[in-house]
Amino acid sequence: MNTEISFAFKLMLQENNKIFFGPGVASLLKAIEETGSVKDAAESMSLSYTKAWTMIKNATKAIGENLVYTEKGGIGGGRSHLTESGKDILEKYNLFQLDSQKAVEEAFRSVFQ
Question: Do the Cβ atoms of 55 and 25 come closer than 8 Å?
């Protein structure tokens, strides 16, 4: 068999068959934590500000807890932070992603190699 064969793996969480959390939301939350800004995080991912907030709101609704806390700003602008729930879901998703990736890699090797 061709040794160049590989696989792609994308993990998403859903509620009532509707996806609310995946690599995009995880990247967005990480970028918010790094930049302190939803606007800057969205720009870094080439997302519109509205799309970023839609992603956050969909995940917040499914989880039932706020994921992002915003502070209104004045001249210097506001800041955004992940709430404890936001940090928790991001950490759990990343752990689940890592564990799942390992399991899928093992299954791939056992089937294809």
Answer: yes
pTM metric for this prediction:
0.89
- For 80, other C-beta atoms within 10 Å of its C-beta total 19
> Is 41:34 a contact under the CB 8 Å cutoff?
yes
* pLDDT value at 3 more than 70: no
Distance CA 17, CA 27 (A): 22
What tens digit of pLDDT does each residue of 50-99 get?
999 999 999 999 999 999 999 887 676 789 999 999 999 999 999 999 99
For the residues of 47-78, what is the DSSP string, one character each? --HHHHHHHHHHHHHHHTS--EEEEEEETTEE
Do residues 60 and 66 lie in contact, with contact meaning Cβ atoms separated by under 8 Å? Answer: yes
Q: Which residues of 18-55 are buried (b: 16+ CB within 10 A; e: fewer)?
A: eebbbebbbbbbebbbebebbebbbeeeebeeeebbeb
How far is the C-alpha of 22 from the C-alpha of 7, rounded, in Å?
Answer: 18
